[in-house]
Amino acid sequence: MRYLSVILSLVFIGLVSLGAALVAHQYFQGQELEKARGRLSLYRASVNAELDRFSHLTHILAKDPFVVSSLLNGNTTIVDSRFEDFADQSGLDAIYLINPQGLTIAASNHALPSSFIGEDYSFRPYFQDALAGKQGRFYAIGATTGQPGYFIADPVLATGGRVLGVVVIKINFGALEESWRSSGETVFMANEDGVILLASNRDYLYRTTEPLSASQRNVILFSRQFPNQQLEPLGWSLSDNTAKLSGRDWLHLSANAAPHNWQIHYFMADERSSALAWLTAAAVVIILGSILIAFQIQRTRRIGTALRRSEEEEAKLRLANERLAQEIVDRRTAERRLSRTQSELERASRLAALGRLAASVTHELGQPIAAMRNHVAAAELGPSGPNRLTASIGGLIDRMEGITRQLKFFARSDTDDFAEFDLVAAMDASLSLVAPNIDSTGTAITFDRPDGPVLIRGSKLHVEQVITNVLRNAIDAVEDTDEPTVIIRIGSDPTPWFEVQDNGHGLGDATLADLQEPFVTTRESGRGMGLGLAISSSIVKDHEGTMQASNIEDGGALFRVTFPAPTANERGDA
Fold it and tell me: Residue 493: which pLDDT band, with cuts at 50, 70 and 90?
């Protein structure tokens, strides 16, 4: 039994130390990768800076009047000298000018045996891109000098936009590559085809990260991008953040280099993280050995059992607390829903009672009102003709009929068929209905009309009734103001809506819920029964929309009505 305990203890220490070594290796490897990310970021920044340092020079040179003049009159003597001076001052490898046929007619190296003048570069992609009117960029081994470089080209345009020629600069990455080699690190950059352009190790140059396809080789061959290069595969392998290169295991990171889809690959040795991981494992072995010697295995087991039991009880308690919290949330939600439902039920009961009352009143008053109108008409047809009394009584009868028409809304039992219509057209129709009110009050109407139609689905007549009620309320509210103004807005984001804003007396202390109750109004006695918003609210609710109202700080009120957008199925049914 004693030997078994010793063997188990040794196995335990071995497993823990191995796990500690793995965890430590991952930790220290993560630190090494973080350092590698910093180094990779520096390399990437250096490449991007080199690519972008002269990116605008070709655009500026293409605007140079001497360059444009030389392409128009064929005299390139001055341009040769200017290009030579520009190249010397900026440190560029070369600056040259190509005519639309692809022949070089001026160059900064015009006096050298390796001058570009007279060379045909029409096969180069940068020339073809610039000839098409856009900036061309290309990395290749020079067809004349045999030296690699990065080419940037821009079209030289005439006044009418015609391409007169192409101005090109060649950037030599020799200094950048030399700094990579002197750093003592392993890094290289490959283009979009996987061909290595720059490398700290010369053996990697013009090798490929992946075998090239036949089409890729044909494109490279046609553009003479890498003449006399075999473009053999590099022979490496990748796995997550590690790579095997030149027979060694490395930590590996890569990043894009703008503006091309080039990849910079950075490699860092992993020996340091491995050494630190084994040191950590050795420390863990020493610590665990001391602990296991100091404490009895049985006591350790009891402590472990008690700890697991405590964790289980804590988990149960945490689960019970979570359930209790969720139950409290659900109960509060249910109480809010119940409160809303009770409010809606009370309002529905009041409206139902009003509907029954409205049906009775309109029925009982219908015949007397009709009889009164007949008597007034008969009096007007009599010998005395129309007079002030008949006109006054006729006005009262009109008012009584208007009241009964509003009451009939609450007594209605039929539902109109819904159809798709334009909310802007409905607004125009309502504006025409309230035009007399607008003229009589001198109200200025501002209509922020949308660019196109705003489609909704519903009863066009009832929606126009809602708009008309809201417009009349706004016009009545601004009647006593110095500069009565009503602003109308219509939109469809995210769903169809319209707003009516006025600079009148506002809502006061009343809320929209108060104003939606029948017979509640903010106007003085005799100016309305307070049924307009109650009717409008019921119509909007029938259309599954919402109505909102608020006071404005500078004075006035804002009413906003929102409708649901018609679905594809509803449009198909319409």
Answer: confident
392, with CB counted inside 10 A (0-12, 13-18, 19+), is exposed
Tokens representing 124? 């180069």
Q: How far is CA 199 from CA 173, 177, 276, in A?
A: 11, 7, 30
Tokens of 280: 């950590």
Tell me, yes or no, if the pTM score tops 0.70.
Answer: no
Model pLDDT for residues 234-245, shown as the tens digit of each residue: 989 888 888 999
Cα distance between residue 549 and residue 547, in whole Å: 7
- What is the token pair recorded at 160? 């009418």
| Tokens standing for residue 215 | 């089409």
Residue pair 465/535 in contact (Cβ under 8 Å)? The answer is yes
**Of 477, 52, 416, which is closest to residue 258 (Cα–Cα)?**
52
Tokens of 527: 């100016």
Distance between CA 116 and CA 23 in Å, rounded? 60
Query: How big, in percent rounded to 5, are the helix, strand and coil portions of the chain?
Result: 50, 20, 30
Question: What are the beta bridge partners of residue 153?
Answer: 136, 168
Question: What does the alpha-carbon distance between residue 23 and residue 18 come to, in Å, rounded to a whole number?
Answer: 9
Least confident of 192-196, 219-223, 389-393: 389-393
Instruction: Please tell me the predicted confidence (pLDDT) of residue 346.
Output: 61
End-to-end CA distance of the chain: 88
Residue 527 has a pLDDT of 47
Close Cβ partners of 441 (under 8 Å, ≥ 6 residues apart): 475, 478, 479, 484
Coil, strand, or helix at residue 548?
A: strand
Residue 386 token pair:
């129309």
Task: Give the pLDDT confidence of 507-529 residue by residue, as tens digits.
Answer: 876 665 555 555 445 555 444 44
- CA nearest neighbour of 191 among 163, 175, 164, 210: 210
